[in-house]
Design goal:
The complex is a heterodimer of chains A (348) and B (297).
Chain A: H1 2-28, H2 33-46, H3 50-73, H4 81-98, H5 104-133, H6 137-157, H7 189-208, H8 210-220, H9 222-227, H10 232-259, H11 270-280, H12 285-309, H13 314-327, H14 333-343
Helix pairs in contact in A: 1-2, 1-13, 1-14, 2-3, 2-12, 3-7, 3-10, 3-11, 3-12, 4-5, 4-6, 4-10, 4-11, 5-6, 5-10, 7-8, 8-10, 11-12, 11-13, 12-13
Chain B: H1 2-27, H2 35-53, H3 56-80, H4 85-108, E1 114-115, H5 135-152, H6 155-165, H7 167-172, H8 177-201, E2 206-207, H9 215-225, H10 230-254, H11 260-282
Antiparallel strand pairs in B: 1-2
Helix pairs in contact in B: 1-5, 1-8, 1-9, 1-10, 2-3, 2-4, 2-8, 2-9, 3-4, 3-8, 5-6, 6-8, 9-10, 9-11, 10-11
The chains are: A mainly alpha (348), B mainly alpha (297).
Chain lengths: 348, 297
């Protein structure tokens, strides 16, 4: 128990340090740091409907982040969640377009299948390159993100282009209302049920199956796992596929839920935020669910800031990046502090 | 032919400077994924500096100072706080991308591209068709040579490699690996500032959001492709630039038959190919970080 308290405290301390850095950057850029933080907290957690907005942004983030947990636990830095998210959404959009006109109970499952398959395939090629040839997955998945952005631009301005669309952003034809799983407002029982299902299944996968144990061990000491006779290839490929499929699922949820159509470059920070959530949660599924709501609130504040408070939304990107910079810090300042505290008679 | 070479030089030069920064960091034992963030900070500071001070040299100075300060921050987080290099590097990149957007918005009130009245000094008429290139293009081979001498022909370079490959051995002969890494990252900061300056100010003289478009990550890939050797990595960076230029050429020659989006994708595909090839040839590139470290026990 103390272990986990220490790790939570450590995360909190480094988040505070990261926020201090943000305050410094805001001040240098000519904004008032206290005003900025007040507006962010207000937009994320205090205004009316904030919880609903945190859920709307947090649930898809949770799904992607849970996938990131699986690949990071197994020891693979799949940082291509953004690309897998896009490809998932694109495949689902194609499925919806081809099956347009069929009843919803056929189209919706087909879209989910397509989206998850798309995301899984987009995670599979870096996985195979990594496992077969040793090609570093950090770079290949990153390049996969840039390639997916290009595919998205191509799809929204080519095959799925909305002819009536005008303005700066190319977008696809909107989905038929019958195929949507939520209104544009973004939270619906279906989406909540999907997120809960994902959470429960992944918790079981991580904590109650041989795969969960072996992949966790493989992430710490791959040699040992190989010597004990487990197939590293299977574990590795499975974790790439699962993480890609979940990112693709999140893309499908965003497409068929709040967005209703593909727009080129939509939600550009989704993948990075999901990675951050997984790390802040210390790669635990339960933690990921809690932390995802927090970052979901922050993501909704990004929309609130320019409209209500007249502040730039890039403040949220900076906050996230600063947290990323510090979150993996391993300094044992906190442990030392706690030990001293206890010596002075905290427990007595 | 001239215009093809000019196009290649124009896209290769920023990449080579940033690649050199990555090589120095790699030698010191740091996987530098913050290159992208440093590069865009350099690009932004150069343009904003030119607009605000009116002088390209003070703008370059500002860019270098900002990149050095950011490098020191990265060093502190990675070396002193023992953060994971890959995640911290991505964080630095995010700070660069977000920070430059915020700076532009705070100064100009919108996210539109900023144009500077003047850019880096050009080579001038005596170079004929190549006169429109900036002096940083001409200086590039000198920098490559200088980094090669520094890393492969001086005592400092040897100590740097020792600090990266076997910190314990380095420490046993009185070399402080942490300090070597700090110096390596600070030199890298200067090189990233120059790369960003060339990108933003070497030909068109403007800055727009996310204008680096993954070039910093490509430079990092060039470091891996070039096996951490300054000459090899430079050729890897040139290869990525040539692939991009050939794509543009192909579109000029074949017109609409070559899809525009495929063209955009070429440098990224070349990068994936380069990483795959170098892994094949060398039997696997392993990340220096133990992945299990990510999780507290």
């Amino acid at each position: 128990m103390t272990e986990s308290i220490v790790s939570v405290l450590r995360a909190l301390i480094f988040i505070v340090i990261a926020l201090a850095l943000c305050g410094l950057i805001f001040s240098v850029a000519g904004y008032s740091a206290p005003d900025m933080f007040r507006a962010i907290i207000d937009g994320a957690f205090l205004r009316t409907g904030a919880l609903q907005q945190a859920l709307r942004w947090g649930l898809p983030l949770f799904i992607t982040a849970a996938g990131v947990v699986i690949s990071f636990r197994a020891g693979y830095f799949n940082i291509g969640a953004q690309g897998q998210f896009y490809i998932g959404a694109i495949c689902a959009a194609f499925a919806a377009d081809w099956l347009n006109g069929l009843p919803a109970f056929i189209v919706i499952p087909a879209c989910f299948l397509a989206g998850m398959t798309g995301g899984a395939l987009w995670a599979m090629w870096p996985g195979i390159l990594r496992l077969r040839s040793g090609a570093d997955e950090v770079i290949t998945t990153l390049m996969g993100n840039f390639l997916a952005v290009i595919v998205l631009i191509y799809v929204t301005s080519g095959p799925l282009k909305d002819p009536s669309g005008s303005g700066q952003q190319a977008s696809s034809r909107p989905l038929d209302a019958a195929y949507r799983i939520s209104t544009s407002y973004g939270v619906s029982p279906t989406i909540i049920a999907i997120a809960i299902l994902v959470g429960v299944l992944l918790w079981l996968l991580v904590n109650r199956t041989a795969f969960g144990v072996l992949s966790g061990l493989a992430g710490r000491n791959a040699t040992m796992v190989t010597w004990q006779g487990a197939r590293l290839w299977n574990i590795g490929l499975a974790s790439f596929i699962i993480s890609g499929a979940l990112a693709g699922l999140a893309g499908t949820v965003e497409l068929m839920g709040p967005n209703g159509r593909l727009a080129s470059g939509f939600l550009p920070a989704h993948g990075f935020t999901a990675i951050l959530i997984a790390l802040v949660a210390n790669l635990s599924i339960v933690g990921t669910a809690i932390v995802a709501l927090f970052f979901g609130g922050l993501a909704s504040a990004a929309l609130y800031l320019p409209v209500i408070a007249g502040l730039p939304s890039s403040a949220i990107d900076i906050t996230n990046a600063a947290i990323a910079l510090f979150i993996t810090a391993k300094s044992n300042i906190v442990d030392r502090f706690l030990r001293n505290w206890r010596k002075r008679g905290w427990t007595t | 032919m001239d215009d093809v070479i000019i196009a290649i030089l124009r896209s290769a030069t920023p990449l080579v400077y940033v690649t050199l920064a990555g090589v120095i960091a790699q030698r010191a034992g740091i996987w530098h994924l913050g290159l992208e963030g440093l590069m865009i900070a350099g690009a932004c500071a150069t343009i904003l500096g030119t607009v605000l001070t009116g002088s390209i040299f003070s703008a370059l100075l500002i860019a270098m100072v900002i990149c050095i300060v950011a490098s020191i921050l990265f060093w502190f987080v990675v070396e002193k706080l023992k953060a994971n290099q890959i995640i911290a590097g991505l964080g630095l990149t995010g700070l660069g991308l977000g920070g430059t957007t915020l700076a532009v918005e705070s100064i100009f009130g919108s996210q539109a591209a900023v144009t500077a009245p003047s850019g880096l000094p050009r080579l001038g008429a005596m170079f004929g068709a190549y006169g429109t290139l900036s002096i940083l293009v001409l200086l590039m081979p000198l920098f490559v040579f200088a980094v090669w001498v520094l890393l492969c022909r001086t005592r400092f370079g040897l100590r740097l490699s020792a600090a990266g490959e076997h910190p314990f051995a380095a420490r046993s002969v009185g070399v402080n690996p942490g300090r070597m890494r700090l110096i390596a990252l600070m030199i890298g900061g200067v090189l990233c500032a120059l790369g960003g300056a060339e990108l933003a100010s070497g030909s068109l003289q403007f800055f727009s959001q996310n204008m680096t478009a993954g070039r910093g990550f490509m430079a990092f890939a060039a470091v891996i492709f070039g096996a951490g050797h300054p000459i090899g990595a430079t050729f890897a960076a040139l290869f990525f630039a040539i692939v991009g230029a050939i794509g543009i050429r192909a579109q000029l020659v074949f017109g609409e038959r070559v899809p525009h989006d495929l063209l955009l994708a070429l440098p990224y595909l070349a990068t994936v190919f380069g990483i795959w090839l170098s892994a094949r040839l060398r039997g696997g590139v392993k990340a220096v970080t133990g992945f299990g470290e990510l999780r507290d026990s």
